[in-house]
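# step 3/5: fold
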Amino acid sequence: MAGVSSPDSRRDGALRDDLGAAVALTAPVRRVVSLVPSLTEAVAHTCPDTLIAATQWCTHPVDLDVERVRGTKNPDVRRIVELAPDLVLCNQEENRRLDVDRLRAAGVAVWVTKIETLDAAFTSLTRLFTTAFAQPVPGWLTTAQENWAAPPPRPPHSAVIPIWRNPWMVVGRDTFTGDLAARLGLHLVHADRSGRYPTVTATELTSGVELAVLPDEPYVFTADDGPDAFPGIPVALVEGRALTWYGPSLATARADLTRQLAAATTGRD
């Protein structure tokens, strides 16, 4: 599959994660704990029998029935160690280095992903499933890559994607969501600011914006909470999972988001 460069799956005989750290696996994983909602859904769809625990924020699949080990930023390390997993899945952005270090110090194998673009997601997930799980490339992943292969629509819309209110925080540079936005034909007006999720004033929030895209996570924007900040500007309320998760939702996200953006901008072009 096409994608960005990443560490070889094996170097010097050792299996390595996205950050190049050695992962001590001698056989395909059979017991896995996921501390990343996107990866939880990906594993549940691909190798469901291997998933033994996840965080409280792992909401998909909706019928997921595994033990919960607290949150992404405060996992119950002691309980995870007690579960004796073959592998714990983490992400550089979503999980703390402290918890990764504690798990590794306890002798638990940890695989850390680094995903800041769509291509990085395709590459990372392919490596994870074909190497650690010894599985073929998942069908949903192949479908996702095919569905996102087309070039973005032109001309782009100048847009903002808030992720929090009071204070206002928005999607900025070098983010997975920002890369998806570009592929949807959006130019994020705050992408030239320092920081990946800059804080902006109410005036800065709307300056130069042609379209506001309001996801329902991490802040739950709704028809009654969010659009009021963008008078005279089209607003698209979208599922946050489609915009921020790099799991099976990618297979349908482009079509769903394109439809929602088009509905918000109809008659405005």
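# step 4/5: annotate
The radius of gyration is 19 Å.
# step 5/5: archive (pending)
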